[in-house]
Amino acid sequence: MSEEHKEQIEFAEATVKDLFSKIGILHSIEKHNEGQETWISVKTDDHVFGIDIQKNIVAVNTVLRRIFEKKFGDDSTRILIDINDFQKKHIEEIKDMARMHAQRVRYFKKEIEMPKMNAYERRLVHTVLQEYPDIKTESSGEGFERRVVVKPVSLG
Hints:
CATH class of the largest domain: Alpha Beta
Distance between the termini: 41 Å
Order of helices and strands: HEEHEHEHEE
Largest sheet: 3 strands, mixed
CATH architecture of the largest domain: 2-Layer Sandwich
Number of helices: 4
Radius of gyration: 18 Å
Strand order of the largest sheet: 1-2-3
Number of strands: 6
Number of domains: 2
């Protein structure tokens, strides 16, 4: 890990601690690396995040990304914030859904269109289904209506 990468992770951790402290939320923080991404996991019993946790996580990640871009430029390390493991569970649900759709495509020999997803979620699906040589994926639609289509290879 480069010194610049370490500096960015330490900065992110300090920024998250400061952000949560300033808004008065009791929390603990753990960090770990997964491939090219560094996760900062926040654990809290505060119910502020329970109302609409996904929007709150997106907001925290957006604020952190903006702070990072100002300090480090666009080439900063990919750091993701998770609150009470919500993101990790959501990612596993998307991966499981992708695998389930792949099995259906194999069985019925017919393409299946998945629900609309953001770019990160679509990338997860494409990556997970690369493991299936008899399945191919492509994105279709525009803007917020973009989704992944899962197809058997034989349909081209």
